[in-house]
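Issue 218. Parser rejects a valid record. Input:
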Amino acid sequence: SVGIHPHYADSFDNKQLFELETMIENSYKIVAVGETGFDYFRNLSSKENQRKAFVSQIEIALKYKLPVIVHDRDAHDDIMDVLKDYANISDFRAVVHCFSGDTDFALKCLDCGFYISFTGVITFPNAKKLAETVKEVPIEKIFLETDAPFLAPQEKRGQENYPGYVKYIAYKIAEIKEMTISDVANITSSNAEEFFGII
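Output the parser choked on:
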């Protein structure tokens, strides 16, 4: 994927917009736009510029019929305020990466047809509310991700995270949803393949 993270939205301009489009046009390997969205935890860019960069990248994604990887940190209401305007556009696809919201926010995302991606945070002992959210999200709408090198699962806490640790997330989702690990792996892989158009 290609995109401008909200941390860098203050420096987002027409030149970067052009560069994004050029990369998309010149590489068949690009399957998504993002991650883009809002990050109100660090606030390294103004909210206004984060919104401008987010909307601009959504428009690029629509132009090239690519899905959007959404970054949402402490910004659930503003994320939904932007995304709801695109939910009824047939070519618009989105996944909320590194999901940190509550069940209510997850249901709003699902109502809009979006996917939800869970990380190693789901394995943490204090992630009980997130586990409740996992129960409510259909497996057909779930992605698994590590967010490596960050957010190592509980079994590897304090260490650098790696893509191979996605198995710990799959095990936890299987446990929560009372499914087999192979079903979780197969269905979530199929979800991602279809979403990114890499079938």
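Fixed in the parser; the record now loads. The chain has two domains: 1-84, 98-199.
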